[in-house]
Design a protein that fits this description.
- The strands form four sheets. Strands 11, 12, 13, 14, 15 and 16 form a six-stranded antiparallel sheet that branches. A five-stranded antiparallel sheet has the order 1-8-3-6-10, with no helix packed on it.
- It has about 220 residues and is mostly beta strands.
- The two termini are about 15 Å apart.
- The chain contains four helices and 16 strands.
């Protein structure tokens, strides 16, 4: 089992203000890995935004009060999001996803989420845990399309014609995010995810197709 999850998100409303724990905290409290993730924006309506980090440092008492009142939405730093943008969200980063976005999310195989604020939906908040793991200051999430961290390495792959990927020495996922084509003769289109196992056979990719290849880095 590859320790990476892939999700496709379509947002019609703002998603909750939340944070994920790191491996140490999640291991102690949940017997699980933490959650570091990245977002690659596939489509965005005009004015679409994501939030990551705060406009200025705040203390835990202020963060708790702001979460209960909803002011936390205004304290966050909101970033314009457009198709093709990539954002890296390490564990401990307070974040939210705005409306009007289609996102490919790649993360550790864990989905422990602590909510600060839920835009009036009435779901449970997890303020004690959220405050215990959060970094309550500014953070710059925008990054290049190639993302490399201790949990995964993701890079874009554009094919116009034909490309052959050599046999792999690690597990990887190939995520189709645009166009159409064939992988070893099998039709592939946006939304498909292929699992490449260790020492898998070379893979021939044909067509006009855009992919993200993500794998677990060697330790």
């Amino acid at each position: 089992e590859i320790p990476i999850l892939v999700k496709f998100l379509f947002t019609s409303d703002n998603l909750s203000v939340q944070v994920h724990p790191d491996d140490e905290y999640a291991g102690v409290h949940h017997g699980s890995a933490g959650t570091t993730e990245m977002w690659h924006i596939l489509a965005a309506e005009p004015g679409a935004r994501i939030a990551a980090g705060f406009r200025e440092p705040i203390d835990r008492a202020r963060a708790r009060t702001a979460a209960l009142s909803g002011e936390i939405v205004e304290l966050l730093e909101w970033h314009a999001a457009a198709a093709g943008d990539t954002f890296f969200i390490p564990a401990g980063t307070v974040h939210a996803i705005g409306a009007g976005l289609t996102i490919c999310e790649i993360q550790q195989r864990s989905d422990i989420t602590y909510r600060f604020y839920d835009f009036g939906r009435g779901r449970e908040l997890h303020l004690d845990s959220a405050l215990a793991v959060s970094r309550l200051g500014p953070y710059a999430p925008r990054c290049e399309a190639t993302v490399s961290c201790q949990h995964f390495v993701t890079e874009p792959l554009d094919v116009a014609g034909a490309v052959t990927l050599p046999s792999t020495t690690d597990q990887a996922l190939l995520i189709v995010i645009g166009g159409e084509g064939h992988l070893n003769g099998q039709a592939a289109r946006a939304g498909d995810v292929w699992h490449l196992t260790v020492n898998s056979e070379p893979l021939e990719i044909t067509g006009n197709i855009r992919l993200l290849r993500t794998s677990v880095p060697s330790r």
